[in-house]
Every structure is written in structure tokens, then in C-alpha cells.
Design goal:
Keywords: Endosome, Golgi apparatus, Membrane, Signal, Transmembrane, Transmembrane helix
Radius of gyration: 30 Å
Family: Belongs to the nonaspanin (TM9SF) (TC 9.A.2) family.
Number of helices: 17
Organism: Kalanchoe fedtschenkoi
Strand content: 5-15%
Pfam family, one: EMP70
Helix content: 40-55%
Distance between the termini: 42 Å
Order of helices and strands: HEHEEHEEEEEEEEEEHHHHHHHHHHHHHH
Subcellular location: Endosome membrane; Golgi apparatus membrane
Shape: elongated
Amino acid sequence: MRSLRSLAVLCVTVLLSIHGGWGFYLPGVAPEDFQRGDELKVKVNKLTSIKTQLPYSYYTLPFCRPDKIIDSAENLGEVLRGDRIENSPYSFKMREPQLCNVVCRITLDGKTAKEFKEKIGDEYRVNMILDNLPLVVPVQRLDHDPTPVYQLGFLVGVKGQYMGTKEEKHFIYNHLSFVVKYHKDVQSDSARIVGFEVKPFSVKHEYEGDWNGKNRLRTCDPHAKQLVTNSNSPQEVEDNKEIIFTYDVDFQESPVKWASRWDTYLLMSDDQIHWFSIVNSLMIVLFLSGMVAMIMLRTLYRDISRYNELETQEEAQEETGWKLVHGDVFRPPVNSDLLCVYVGTGVQFLGMILVTMIFAVLGFLSPSNRGSLMTAMLLLWVFMGLFAGYASTRLFKMFKGSEWKRIAFRTALMFPATVFVVFFFLNALIWGQKSSGAVPFGTMFALVVLWFGISVPLVFVGSYVGFKKPAIEDPVKTNKIPRQIPEQAWYMNPIFSILIGGILPFGAVFIELFFILTSIWLNQFYYIFGFLFIVFVILLITCAEITIVLCYFQLCSEDYLWWWRSYLTAGSSALYLFLYATFYFFTKLEITKPVSGMLYFGYMLIASYAFFVLTGSIGFYACFWFTRLIYSSVKID
């Protein structure tokens, strides 16, 4: 009864998170109240571009600097994402509008002009933060919907042409018109910040006399009611050009409460597509469930009844089907050690993703905690090593293995080492581009400490516990001499059936996969974990069911080599994931630099490898349970 109640609570939580439940806010950041006149400090984050995928620190460009640059403390996830949060010269007074504030004046030389032009050409965006809220640019929709679309950060500048010329010029956005939205407390005069927006302009500022830092600007003068409202006279980026950076700030009262301030960033306008994704996935699950039910309730029931009613040995020998291979079906496979390692790693992944999903659905991994999702996944991966060691050694002992330490060592090292080599190579490429996305040596050392200091010992502990448990007994005895496998029909060819098996699990998730790739590579928020959790559960069921169906057909064809095939059948969905990622690269992204392309395919290769390990292990355990169930249900002479 208690388990049913827990299940009901979980279902309600998932549904709440799907249907506008983002007001349910469990961040690690406490709200801050501001009185009129309190100082508001704007911080700057990395420069980002969807064309290069290489983030850079804000001050790699010669923007206006404060007297002393102070780095904010970043967590592990933030560092891995390339976040570099620093202070800025932009400072506001709460609920006190300012007009035409001059930040600084710079004169470009050949080098700095080239740097600005490169970043403008690659469409880099400036990211700022106020009270933990990212800066957004409101963009009106084309369908006349009054609700604007919000883009994270503003462009460094744009490329364009003067009227009547064809020569392309680079123009910088040097005037920022900020809007700070706040929600006022009814009882007190304090207020909380609930929005941070900007409209950037390119303005060639003019002033009288020589520059002394206190000149009145003719192009932006609140006393003469001359404000910046357009970019009709833009600021060009060229050698020896002077640029004056200015800003306005306005304060607007908002009905949005502090707990709901992230809704504008997170709410998806296309949630119907997500519902379509779930309905599509459910159709696949219902189709497979029908097949499994037919096999289990009708075919298997009939087979088991008939096998158990056979009276003589001669009658049994005349029978064909899955019972004939009972003496070989639990024969240890080729490369059984490697299978144990992969299964253990898959269990580690399953535990990590399941716990991460639950925390995300409950709201603990809010985007307000930058880097929290990646930090949580890394730490959970490390601690789930305990289950990886246990699962791999239990299987190893069932295969009559004795050297459990060797299996534990391979489980602890094989997958992480492969990923680490690829990651190190990609990181070297990022270092070569002098990008802030490169993981510093200190962080790299911390990752190695987590791996060898916590994960590896936990894998050994889990392996020790697993090996001390009694070995899993096979429901039937294995013959000493292997049975010859008859010639198989073309559609039961291992390669063909494995490739077919991966289509349906991939089909269950590919629509949601589009949104995940968009959030990663197009710099958008992904926070619809309610949808994702349901799709993940559907993926588990689909992997299990397709493997059981194909495993049954395989055994009926008197082919007992099901161990590896069950793993590869569900795992082949990773091949389709990588192919879809390739399709996404050429159709949705505008990446032109070779280094950026290598980064994309390198990271997607890691993701596909992880998906292979996860889905393969699910398929294996489903088939393992299925074979043990059916062979324990018949009387074997």
C-alpha cells in the first residue's frame, strides 16, 4: 500500500512539472530584497556563438573594464560548461532610472578592430547576469502574438552596408538600453528583481571639444531630450576609430512573483509537440506490449503446456522450437568478461540518469543553479560505481568466473578511460583556440581524483559484495557439447535483427532528442524534465520489449547465442542516435569551422557511446529475465 502511495505521489509530481509546474521552485538561491537606491551589480559571463560553439571570456574583447576584475566562484558544472562569471563596470541603483550613462571610451587599433570583427562575423553574443537572472533580448513574434520570444544575451555587433554602397562593414552595439523588472512587496517598500532585458543599439556618439570623460554627448543627452532609440547612425569598427560605450536603465513594476520569474525563460510555446512525442512513443509501447503479451500469454502458455504433456523422450526429440536449446541457452558467451563489464557500466548509467531525472523533476536542478545538472550527473556517476561493480561481478560469478578483481578493475576503468581520452583530445583543441571552454588543469585534476579516489574504490567495494553473494543458478543444466545451430532465415541474420531492433527505441525518443540537441547546441534552456522523464520510462519499456520479442524469435529458430545479441539489439539504437545527430548538424547548425565540427561530433560520439551502454544493458536484463522465466516453467528430463 505504501509503495502504491509513493507511486501516486511521483506521478502527480511528474504531471505537475509538465503542466506549468515551474512555479514550484526549489532553487539553491534565496530571494534578495532591494530597497530604493540599493546598488545592483551587473556581472558578465562568457561570450557564446552557435556558429563556433567556442565560448570566450568577456574580457578577451577590449570592452570597458572595472578597476579590478574579480572572478566569481564557479562550481564544477559551470567550469565544464565554460562559464566565466566576472564583475563589470555596469552598476545600477534600484528603481532609479538612468539615461545616457557613459561607461568608457576606447580607441581601436588594428589588433582590437580585428578581434571585434571576428566576433561580430561569428555572431558572438554577450551574456550578463543580474541577481542571478541572465540578460535577455525580447524579440516580437512573426505571428502577431503579443508575447515576445526571449533570446539569451545580445549580439556583439552586426554586419551591414551603408545606403548606396555594397561594401560590407562591421558595426558594434555600444549603447545598451536595459530594463529591470521588479515585483514590489505590498506591505513594505522592498522589491525583488524578476526580469532583466536589454535592447542594444549601434550609435556613433558625438561630443564637443576634447574628450575629458565628462563631456556632454550630442547623440545621447537627457537634458536636451536626445535619447537613443535607433541605430540610424551606427558605430563602425575600424582601425583608429573611437568607440564610446553608454547605457540607459529603466525600472518596470511587474506582476510576476519572484518564484515564477524563470517562467519566461523556461515555458515552451510548442508543448503540443512534446505531447505528440509522448503519444507517438506510447503507440510504439502499446504495439510492442501487445506482441509481448501475445508471446507470453498465448504462444508461450501453449508451448509450455505442450512440452509438459509430452510423455516419451521420442516425442520430445521430435519437437522443434525454443525448448530444444535448453541445454545450451545458458552456456557462457564468447568474451563473457567484456559483457560483464558493459552490463555493469550500463547499470551505473541507469542509476545516474534515474536519480538525476527524479531530482530534476522535483525542481532541485533549476537553471538558476548554473552547472548544477552537470555537477549532479558527475557526482552521481561516481557514487553509482558501487552498483556497477556489484552488477558486473554477479554476472561474472554466474559465468563461473573467479578473478573478480580483474573484472572490477576493467569495469572501473574501461568506459571512463575511453571517454577521458576523447575528452582530453577535444579539450586540447579548445585550448588551441584559447577558448574559456577549455577545462583548466586544476579541474581536470579534480575529475581524476573523483574517478580514482571515489569511483574506483566504490566499484571494488560493489564487486566484493557481489562476488560474496551466492552464484545465480541456471534454471536448466548446460550440456557439455554445444548443439549445432541450424541455418537461419535471412531475416534472423544477427546483423539484420540487431539493426532492426534499434529502430523502435530510437523512434520512441527522437522527437524529444531534437529539443535536447537544440538546448545544447543552440544555447537554449531545457527544463521540461516532466516530459523527459516520461519519455525515458517509455524508452526503458521499449528497449525491454523489443529485445524480448526478438529474443523469442531467435530461440524459436534454435539459435541460443542470445547473450550478446540481446545487448546489441537494444544498444543499436545508439547508431541511429549518432546518425540523427549527423543529420541535425547538416540541417540545423551553421558550424563552418573544422575545430567546431570536431567538437560537435566528438561530444555526440561520447553521448552515443553512453546511450549504447545504457540501452544495451536494459535489453540484456530484459532478455535475461525472460529466458530464465520461460525455461524455469518447463519440465526438463
